[in-house]
Amino acid sequence: MSICTHNLCSLENSKKVLLIDHFMQKFTENIICISNDRLSYHQNRDDHDGDDYCVTIPKANGNFENVNSILYFENKKVRYIWDNDVREFIKLHGLDKDIKCTYFYQ
């Protein structure tokens, strides 16, 4: 007898994800949401509003985006973060990918 404990929904509204790898192994991972009040170690002051804090995350095209919260999950020691532009979780890469060295000299 099996009991269904979760419902199918869109990724942006989900609390867990079901992952199936190439070997047909199944993993369930919790989605973690960190809002701007818990990002005290990476806070930037937003130029538009003096009281609003946000965190800067790297984008796939080499640019950075300021966000108020981060949705992410980890699987096999790899972190995936939610990208609002493509509306899916993307693999978080280091600063060595898609970011030009001239960015650090500015």
From TrEMBL:
It is a multi-pass membrane protein. It is found in: Membrane. Its EC number is 7.2.2.-. Residues 4-83 form the P5B-type ATPase N-terminal domain. It catalyses: ATP + H2O = ADP + phosphate + H(+). One of its GO terms (molecular function) is ATP binding. Keywords: ATP-binding, Magnesium, Metal-binding, Nucleotide-binding, Translocase. GO terms for cellular component: membrane. It comes from the Eukaryota. It holds the Pfam family P5-ATPase. The keyword Translocase applies. Belongs to the cation transport ATPase (P-type) (TC 3.A.3) family. Type V subfamily. This is Cation-transporting ATPase. The lineage of its organism: Eukaryota, Metazoa, Ecdysozoa, Arthropoda, Chelicerata.
